[in-house]
Amino acid sequence: MQKKYFWIILGVLCLPLGMSSSLAGTDKEHLQPVFHLLLGQTPHIAVVKNVFDPDGPVIVNVQNLEGNDDDWVGIYPQGATNDWGNQVGWHWTGGIKDGTVQVTLNNDTPEGIYEARVFFHNSYKLEAKCELLLFNNVAMPVPVYTDNAIPQPLSGGMYGAMGEHPVGKISVASPWPAYADKDYLKVDLYIPADVTGKRPTVFFITGYGQFHSERYRSLLYFIASQGYNCVFVPHEHTNPDFHPELLLTILDGVVEQFAPMIDTTRVGYAGHSEGGGLIFYLAKDRPQWGTNGRFLFSLAAWWGFNLPETGDVAYPPNTNMIIQMGDPALDTGTDPRQNIDFLLHNNIPAERKTYLYLPGDDNHPATHGISYSGFENGSYTYDALQQVGLFRPLESLMRYSFAGDALWKWIGLPDQGDANYNTMSQTNGITVLSTDDPLGNHDVPIPPEASLGPDFLCHQHDPDGYYNPRWQMCMPCGDTPRDTPWRKCQ
Known about the structure:
The protein is of the alpha/beta class. It is built from seven helices and 24 strands. The chain folds into two domains: about 120 residues, Immunoglobulin-like; about 325 residues, Rossmann fold (3-Layer(aba) Sandwich). The protein is about 15% helix and about 25% strand. The longest helix has 20 residues. About 45% of the residues are buried.
């Protein structure tokens, strides 16, 4: 019995030690020790959204508090001790056990990662905490559907309709040092403004010379409105210091800076033109990201850099892929042969990838800039071709990749037996073709090389000029008939 009593006494002596003081005015006086015993359920604190403005206020929900008049919540920089003076704002809980607390922040509070911390009995003894972000973020207006030929958009619960989440935009300096002082190379984050916790994230790599996210505003907004983060990554290929692998420096920096809201186990890589070719390298070189969901969404891609010069490219086994091409008669800046190489020469099984051909029509020309936003009467806009041809399959791809939603997989990644597999199909007046056999399906156009710009040809390998690292893998090689057995280009 003596041993049992000994441990009971020791347990009492080791109870959490609170620190009591007065919080009158805005200063804390010298603290006096008090004993604090937590009974019942564990205290909990959570923010109502991931990102707040540095001007405040910060709003948190608390549960299972003791309900003392001298319980309080403080906002601290991540890693700071609980000492008085380190907080950037605080407020009494008002004696509540469960409810909401609003904390006003100090003037000129810097951007960054912070923690909301709850304390009992006017002490510095931490009871619960949660992470939050303080960044200037701008509410984005919803892009407007504008299409004179097809006045009614997909809406409601239909795939391709704008999501229900309001969207905010955060702009930060590029994590790559050579870009850090250039405003036009800032990284923009489009975020669902009303969510909390880590979210699946799509990294969008821009086309050549497209430095501003407004160029793709409707597409980026669409992604965030579905409840996912979208990181817009501009780059400057004309800079002599540019190397594709340095895009990874930017991605790594963004992930670190926004760690409380980015779920790296569920990631997507989207890109247009030059960016559409760069994403294949990024996905290959970050196999540790996307363990719970991963996809590639390539739009009218240019060449692929930092890939094997010949042979298949190896991606993690759960990778899904859509490669989109428009009308090559209008999109002379992209060679379909390059995109066929991207589709076929990898280890991704056919049921997880598709070649998405958008023929367009007289009212919806399928140019190189299908992904560009329109702008009319002060609003960013999108039309039926973008909604049906881009947003709709992308939503299917995101839901299948991030949530395992196989019910609507057929929209973006149709399988044999699906009505839209390997055949022209129409939704809301827009025709699309999804196929995992773009060579065998002759509805997919492969134009003569003479009709394309010489700097964009798949087999371009001028050692003194532009050079496609994978020129030997073009399919078909040059103007070889498409049904000829493929061989490496010479």
